[in-house]
Amino acid sequence: MSLKTMDRPVKWKGALNGSQDAREANAWHQAMEQLDRAAQKIRLEQYILERLRHAKRTLTVSVPVKMDDGTLRVFEGYRVQHNLDRGPAKGGIRFHPQVSMEEVKALAFWMTMKCAVMNLPYGGAKGGVICNPKEMSIGEIERLTRRYTAEISIIIGPDKDIPAPDVNTNEQIMGWVMDTYSMTIGYSAPGVVTGKPVDIGGSLGRREATGRGVFYITQELANVKGFDLRESSVVVQGFGNVGMNVARIFAQHGCRVVGAADVMGGIYNPEGLDVEALAEWSNKHDTISRFPKGRKISTQELLELPCDILIPAAMENQITHYNAHRIRAKYIVEGANGPTTTEADRILAKREILVVPDILANAGGVTVSYFEWVQDIQSFFWDEKDVNARLKDHMVRSFRDVHDIHTREKVDLRLAAFMLALRRLAQAVRIRGLFP
Asked: For residues 413 and 340, is the Cβ–Cβ distance under 8 A?
């Protein structure tokens, strides 16, 4: 293969045939479209582009689990390391019925880009198990976690690949991952995972980090666009760890959170929701859809509410060609990974709705995960004020880097973020070369 600089970008040969629905549903296809667009803009060398179109390492594992009723079930799990040129792999683990290898590959790619945008010394990874934890007991989830960890232990480690929480995983699950890995090597290795409880090496501020990062980015957006964030109306899709903390932090800073939703449905109050009461209701009832102080709406209706800022903080492919022309937000700040499809991006751009991309907006989680990893390595821990101040510095600096490209190159913020990430990643690839 020639290592010469390409004259023009190579089209992705893996593009799906078939309907627009099929193309939008495939996260890996979406990721490769984003890669090609940025590669063309910066005239990326063909050999680097070809490398980035393929994950460095993919692992599929069988996860046998003894269920509470004595039966045996075998789940399928994945761990993907997309790129290691800037450092060890980093990325979450999700437990969800819709997990697939294509999805995990895309999420690992986006983590590579996210770490490069934030200038963290990591490559991207992701993991997942096809399961429905809402139908499993705590004991079954623990056994699933420990067996999955044992199966992927051949490729994870503090200097190789550091998992973290994602959809349907939390601090306790990360604690089980750490303990299982530590048992396999014979000593405690807190640096193998981030997002774990503070009592076993977790970082203060990690639980709220993604939501806090979304807020810091939105603050900077308000500064450059000249609007008062405290007078803005906010809608949040998703009310898990990210969405709940997003809603709380925005409300604490005087914003009016008018809508929120979880998988069961949403709630709308144009006068503003009592976010603390909503969070308490969610913890007691496992859903916010029946919260009494507001109008019950569907998740789809929530996305189309009139508001200043829409924050999708749930799953991929929420804003598509079906609903993009009905979005009434002025700004979209992506709290989830891949919530907006490429076709929706084009529609939103024509409608002059500004989208702050996931690889910038929701990078607070991986940034504080990096802080946690550093603290574990040093065995020296910071107070929460210090963590939050460092997080704000990183988020503000990265927003300004992306916004400078957005302004100078006259491109949208997503393309600007990918251009920044690719330039940093490409330089690492050039310096390291090709082995052997």
From this structure: no
Domain of 148: which CATH number?
3.40.50.10860
| Closest to 168 in 3D by CA, of 242, 110, 234, 113 | 242
Question: 3-class DSSP state for residue 241?
Answer: helix
Same domain, residue pair 140 and 264:
no
Query: How far, CA to CA in Å, does 189 sit from each of 200, 203, 378?
Result: 10, 15, 12
Residue pLDDT, tens place only, 183-230: 999 999 999 999 999 999 999 999 999 999 999 999 999 999 999 999
Among all residues, which ones are annotated catalytic? 126
At residue 16, the pLDDT reads 34
Q: Are 332 and 307 in contact (CB under 8 A)?
A: no
pLDDT band at 25 (very low <50, low <70, confident <90, very high): low
Return all residues near 310 (Cβ < 8 A) that are at least 6 apart: 234, 235, 237, 303, 327, 329, 331, 332, 333
CA atoms of 5 and 72, how far apart (whole Å): 54
Q: Are residues 251 and 327 in the same domain?
A: yes
- 274 and 153 share one domain: no
